[in-house]
Write a structure and sequence with these properties.
Blueprint: H1 2-7, H2 10-16, H3 21-35, E1 40-41, E2 48-49, H4 51-74, E3 82-88, H5 90-93, H6 97-107, E4 111-117, H7 120-128, E5 134-138, E6 146-160, H8 162-167, H9 173-176, E7 181-183, H10 189-197, E8 208-210, H11 214-222, E9 227-230, H12 236-241, E10 245-246, E11 253-263, H13 269-290
Parallel strand pairs: 3-4, 3-5, 7-8, 7-9
Antiparallel strand pairs: 1-2, 5-11, 6-9, 6-10, 6-11
């Protein structure tokens, strides 16, 4: 009933719970018969909760919270199962996501994760639509229904091959604009910031090659097809080997701030523990990169 009320649709609730709409309708009808009252007003095109339904929702919320507290107070983590749909920005895929997945698997071996990689704008929409349970994306998030926790910040730099760097004399923005600029997809923070950086009419208009695939941007930079505007953290191996170099261009672009975002549902306790695992994975990854000799 909680999911029907939140999603305002029997069909959407059925999809969320991996069941069918008729099955959901039968369960609600059985509950209404047992209570002797109508829980949903179906007389209009928009599904609404009746006053009795709101009372039931309040009790259901409390019951789910108590169930979640009981499970996490008593149950063995290795026996907690289920499926979480997690949306992830690709920068995280190239940094701390593998460590996170390893730690989740170790803590919750019966918990299944469905990973969806997309740009942060799309992940936010899917989170609000409740099509994913948790998102690691660029924040902060302003939606009132979403809980969030800061996770990490990644500086963004101009990165290129040694061949491209050798072509640059003073590294000015005018020189940089002679090369294609390789960066994140449209409607992302880096793309907007790059566009603003070169908005001065005195500067040449750059050719911006946008892609939602960081792997594609990295490959193009390695092949000297342009200058990538990306977090250096995703190309640490290439930078260490000298196959890419940081151009150290001024002015600096703002860091990308990543957060974990999830909805404040009463059964969110396991989600919050998974977010804590993400925070620990971030700390471990940062420490690993800072170790001498790495």
């Amino acid at each position: 009933m909680l999911w029907i009320a939140q999603l305002e649709s029997f069909r959407a609730a059925a999809d969320k719970l991996n069941t069918t709409q008729p099955a959901i309708s039968v369960r609600v009808a059985q509950l209404e018969d047992e209570l002797g009252t109508q829980l949903f007003d179906r007389s209009s095109r928009t599904l609404t909760v009746t006053p009795s339904g709101r009372q039931v929702l309040a009790y259901a919320d409390r019951l789910l919270r108590l169930r979640a507290e009981m499970l996490h107070a008593i149950a063995d983590r290795t026996h907690l199962g289920g499926t979480f749909k997690i949306g992830v920005a690709e920068t995280i895929v190239h940094t701390w996501l593998p460590r996170f997945l390893e730690q989740v698997s170790s803590t919750y071996p019966k918990l299944a994760l469905e990973i969806e990689v997309d740009i942060s704008t799309h992940l936010r929409e899917r989170l609000l639509q409740q099509k994913i349970d948790l998102a690691f994306l660029v924040g902060p998030l302003s939606a009132p229904a979403v809980l969030q926790r800061p996770l990490c910040r990644f500086p963004v730099s101009f990165v290129a091959s040694p061949k491209v760097k050798a072509d640059l004399k003073d590294g000015s923005l005018a020189e940089i604009a002679r090369w294609p600029i390789l960066t994140f997809a449209r409607n992302t923070q880096p793309y907007v910031q790059v566009s603003q950086l070169f908005s001065d009419p005195a500067l040449p208009t750059p050719r911006i090659y946008a892609s939602s695939s960081l792997a594609t941007l990295i490959r193009m930079a390695l092949d000297s097809l342009g200058i990538a505007v990306i977090p250096p953290s995703i190309v640490t191996a290439e930078l260490a080997a000298g196959r890419l170099v940081d151009l150290d261009i001024s002015p600096k672009l703002p860091d990308l701030q990543f957060v974990a975002g999830w909805l404040g549902t009463p059964d969110r306790r396991t989600l919050e523990e998974v977010v804590e695992i993400a925070s620990l994975a971030v700390e471990a990854t940062v420490e690993w990169h800072e170790e001498p000799g790495r």
